[in-house]
Fold this protein.
Amino acid sequence: MHDSAFVPFHVPDAPGPIGAVAFPIADRLARVGLAVPVETGIALAPSASLTDRLEDVRESLAAAGLIGPPRDEPMPVRPGCEGPEIARIDRSALRALGLWAEKVHLNGLVPDEAGGPPRIWLSLRARTAPSNPLAWDTLVAGGRPCDTSRAETLRKEAFEEAGIDGAACARAVFVRTMSVQYVSERGFHQELIAIHDLTLDPRFAPVCHDGEIESARLFPLPALRAALADGTRFKLSSRLVTQDLVARLDAMR
């Protein structure tokens, strides 16, 4: 869907671009009158409701086959990684417009009985996953939709992807946020990643309830370090989160 180059995406009343779009999307929006080219990219035509105008954009892009069908999950539109919500958009169009998303990631750690470094659970994404099939992921990862707190998002995703109940999830420790920008087959990604660690019982075994995970594997730290270095396929954001975890564990030794 995307080209290798993107142009800034502006909306009315925002002080700067809030996203970035590939040239085929910019061309489509200009041809149907939903946006106009400007010196610094492409600007959405004014409308009484930014949410309604973004839904017009989503419908147009879906009709042209540039994005998939609606996912019926509204996501907040923000002017920056931690800015206020200025509109809403269906999740299916978020990446195509290069809008900011907040993601929660959970590292699952199992203590070593001999006092060595913990082992780390990773999830292998399902072969039918819409993005990054059969790539390694953190134990739990998911996007934060509208009207949902970070804690609620983490609790929901932890149960759906790994069978972690609410009481166990409440023990997760927030580590930090990480803002990243990268390109995938779906478009230009801008993500604020909220990283959490959770120490799990050695008897714990992940159980996926939503079909997004093929299997899970418990990695000793040296094996995980090797997987990060040898070209093993990771979802990019999860590679960054896992590298951050390994660096923190190494610093504690």
About this structure: The CA atoms of residues 126 and 214 lie 4 Å apart. The longest strand covers residues 187-199. The mean pLDDT is 94. The radius of gyration is 19 Å.
